[in-house]
Amino acid sequence: MADFKDELSPALAQALGSELQNAWTDFPLETWSHAATSGLEVLELKARAAHLADALALCLPPTFPEAAAVLDRALESPTFTGWMIWPCGQLVAQQGIDDPDIALPLLARLTRRSSSEFPIRAFIARHPEVTFRYLHQWAAHPDEHVRRLVSEGTRPRLPWAPVLRGLITDPTPAVALLERLFDDESAYVRRSVANHLNDISKDHPDLALACAERWLAASSHGDGVVRHGLRTLIKRGDPRALALLGYGHSTTVTLVDLTVSPDVIAIGDEVTLTATLSAADDTRAAIDYLVHYQGARGPRPGKVFKLTSRHLPAGDQVTVTKRHRFDHVSIRTIRPGPHRVELQVNGRVLGSVEVMIRPR
After folding, report:
1. Is-cis flag, bond preceding 262, omega within 30?
2. pLDDT tens digits, one per residue of 2-49
3. How many Å apart are CA 48 and CA 51, to the nearest integer?
4. Distances (CA, A) of 33 to 49, 50, 68, 72, 275
5. Three-state DSSP class for 9?
6. Is 128 helix (H, G, I), strand (E, B) or coil?
7. Long-range CB pairs of 215-219, under 8 A, 24+ apart, other chains included
């Protein structure tokens, strides 16, 4: 599978240059081609976006209102879209940070082509009052992409982005926005709200749970936002979160059997985890498993993975299975050695098995 960084390619840079020249005939295409593509391919993803933004600053008009007008005209083209929007949004955050009343409406228009969730964070940090005034207006915007920007752009712990420390300390300004979006007609927006709630739960679990209780009572779209938004608390075995979603935290669940097959594999191969459970009373169970990957200095803390949610009838034995691949991913390198796998039910670890990983 191609790396994400390859999306910001020399070919995309050339396409972006053509879009901007169509919008502004004085756009220096030759200068752009050289500045945008020189050294691009040796860079990683975020560095490529920054490189292209710097090239844009070199080639667009020198004042931000004029540069913003070119980007606005480019939006008249339906092919000005996708990955090429990222460096444009970054340029807006860099060049327009002191012109929020021009920059923020432009970010809202850009987000309809590709999300402005990264560049808007600079304005939240620098101009919180102005930015939140726009965010409250956008919470009622007819376009779901703009409404999603409200919830996603204010996430305190958005992946790939700097944290918003002010909203980690006090998330209530963002909660006021989420209150308007948790029951949005768009599943795309609701999913963002759920991820935002999960961010809040990591620093303010009581506030997140209070939101979840209100939203469950008022939602017309079921418990999806709350279920996804409380996933970190569920994995931690928080009794209030488990009870809120109907899991039987107080019911005794017994691990009858736990196996992993095969128990010796090469890096890149997969195993099948099989668990048999029995509950003393009828209960709904959140069944997860934790993998203690080998790190450079020994086993790491367990990484929690969702296995399933299952109704366990009183006294019956229920068997569940899950395949898990031990392969390298962008955030994790698989090292040879023993890897402990634990089974967790309603927040309690009931047992463990070991997988031996050998080099490929």
Report:
1. yes
2. 688 999 999 999 999 999 999 999 999 999 999 999 999 999 999 999
3. 5
4. 15, 15, 20, 21, 58
5. coil
6. helix
7. 215/182, 215/183, 216/244, 218/182, 218/183, 219/182, 219/183
- Lowest mean pLDDT of 163-177, 208-222, 254-268, 288-302, name the range: 288-302
Residue position matching structure tokens 């082509």: 113
Measured from the Cβ of residue 133, the count of other Cβ atoms closer than 10 Å reads 14
Q: Taking the CA atoms of the chain, what radius of gyration do you get in angstroms?
A: 24
Sheet holding 303-312, edge to edge: 264-266, 348-358, 337-345, 283-292, 303-312
Identify the CATH number of the domain defined by range 253-358. Answer: 2.60.40.10
Q: Do 352 and 343 form a contact (C-beta atoms < 8 A)? A: yes
- Establish whether domains 150-245 and 253-358 are of one fold: no
**Domain range summary for the chain, segments of one domain joined by +:** 1-114, 150-245, 253-358
Q: How far, CA to CA in Å, does 290 sit from each of 7, 49, 264, 269, 293?
A: 33, 35, 18, 18, 9
Residue 305 phi, psi (nearest 5): -125, 145
Please state which architecture CATH assigns to domain 150-245. Answer: Alpha Horseshoe (1.25)
Residue 297 has pLDDT above 90, yes or no: no
Q: Whats the size of the chain, residue-wise?
A: 360
Amino acid at 46: K
**Both tokens assigned to 279:** 């509950």
Closest CA to 5 of 349, 332, 330, 244: 330
